[in-house]
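Wed. Picked up where I left off yesterday with Gamma-glutamyl-hercynylcysteine sulfoxide hydrolase. The coffee machine is broken again, so keeping this brief.
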Amino acid sequence: MCRHLACLGPPEPLGELLVRPPHSLYVQSWAPRRQRHGTVNADGFGVGWYADGDPVPARYRRAGPVWGDESFADLVRVVRSGAFLAAVRDATRAGADGEAAAAPFAYGPWLFSHNGMVAGWPDSLAEQARCLPAEELLALEARCDSALVWALLLHRLRSGDALPQALADTVTEVAAAAPRSRLNLLVTDGTEIAATAWGDSLWYRHEPAGGRTVVASEPYDDAPEWCEAPDRTLLTASRTEVLLTPLKDPEPKEPMA
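Structure written out below (tokens, as returned):
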């Protein structure tokens, strides 16, 4: 269910990480090596990146497979950035909302991607949806599970919660309402990355000498610097450090009388 990657580091062409490596995100769209659910990520793709002096990222998204877009490889060959997030999608429900459902989702300085699925969607999150302000529900880009998870996270961020805490609280809220969900979430604001390992693979590569940190669903090459985050983990990273914090499964809900 999707593959994604976020990077903070020196400015470089996006294609150096997204296309050029032997097991790049581009290749993972049809041949992922560590994907636990699904085999092909052909239901959309996107990349968001930050330009110097502008905190609001640009995005390029499409509904079809990335290998079918003749402009993508050319775009990432020349666009340079020191902070970006990209994803290829395997939809929970095929055909849902097209390009609007492709990550990264965005608001203000934030980019967001979800690798996984919400069990029992959409009924399982009906109560959480009812708790959101009507204007936030009406602003949803798509009607898929990832878009609602993003809305729940964004509500916390707009309320002033720090990104790591907002991400952890969103995951545990959704997991409590929809057990057996897979909630590998990935967020950046261009200065930090926050991610969760919850039901699928999550890897990171920290290069302090070069000032680069990459967080991804799976490695794009076989370099020994890659480390796997344990399941049920919150990862927070900057260009200079990576911190792993265990996450606890939520307490089971009491059965209704």
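Quick read: The CA atoms of residues 176 and 252 lie 7 Å apart.
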